[in-house]
Amino acid sequence: MFLLTSGLVKVCHLTPEGKESILAFVEPGEFFGELAIFNGEARDEYVEAVGQSTVVMIPAGEMNRLMNECSDVTMGITKMIGLRRQSIERRLKNLLFMSNRERIVHLLLDLAQQFGWEAEDGIHLRVKLSHQNLASLIGSTRESVTVILNQLKAEGTIENGRRRIVLTHPARLAHSVHRQPPCYARTNTQLVPAWGTR
C-alpha cells in the first residue's frame, strides 16, 4: 500500500467505453492501495498524481505485521476503509436517485468540506477542477455540468472561472439539497496545482 506525503492523487476507473470515472481524491497523510493488505489480486482502479506528489510505498507484509502488533493502526486502517466505503455508497445513491443539479450541489458541498477555505467572498476550493473533472466525479457530461454551474452562478450561489470555484452562499446551497452547511478550513493553505482543461 502507499502513503501520500505531499501533493494530491486521484483514484480512477476506466469504463469499457474508455471514459474516466474519478472515484476519490487522496490528500497528504492518507493511504491508498490498502486492499493489498488483504489480497494481492490486480484491481480495476488506478491512481494518477495531480501535480507534483511524493508517495511512500509500504510492503503489504510490513503493514500486516504492524497491524498485528498495534491495535491502533488496525483501527485506523479499518476506519479509513469504512469511511471510504460510506463515501462511495453515498455517491452511488446520489447517482441513482438524484438529478444532475442535485449531484453537482452535493459534490460542491463535499469538496468544500474536504478542500474549502474561507475568504470574504465565500468558500474557495483548493483543488482546481475542470468541468470534465466534475462530470467524471458525478457520472455526467461536461456539457450538463457547464449548464448547471452557469445556473448556480446566475442564482448567485457560486462564482466560477477557469478551474476555479467559490461557494458564495454555501448555506443556501446546502439548504437546497436538505444538508447542513459544510465545515471547512479557516485559512488558505498551499494551493493544489491546476490540472485538466475546461
- CATH topology-level fold name of the largest domain: Jelly Rolls
Protein structure class = alpha+beta
Termini separation (Å)?
32 Å
Could you tell me the number of beta strands?
10
Output the CATH homologous superfamily of the largest domain.
Answer: Jelly Rolls
Sum up the overall morphology in one term. globular
* Radius of gyration over C-alpha positions, nearest whole angstrom: 18 Å
The CATH class name of the largest domain reads Mainly Beta
- Domain module count: 2
Count, helices: 6
The CATH architecture term of the largest domain is: Sandwich
Strand percentage: 15-25%
The biggest beta sheet, please? 4 strands, antiparallel
Secondary-structure element string: EEEEEEHHHEEHHEEH
Oligomer: single chain
Task: Report what the structure shows.
The protein is of the alpha+beta class and 198 residues long. It folds into two domains: 2-96, Sandwich (Jelly Rolls), CATH 2.60.120; 99-176, Orthogonal Bundle (Arc Repressor Mutant, subunit A). It contains six helices and ten strands. It has a four-stranded antiparallel beta sheet. Strands 4-1-6 form a three-stranded antiparallel beta sheet, with no helix packed on it. Strands 3-2-5 form a three-stranded antiparallel beta sheet. α1 packs across α2.
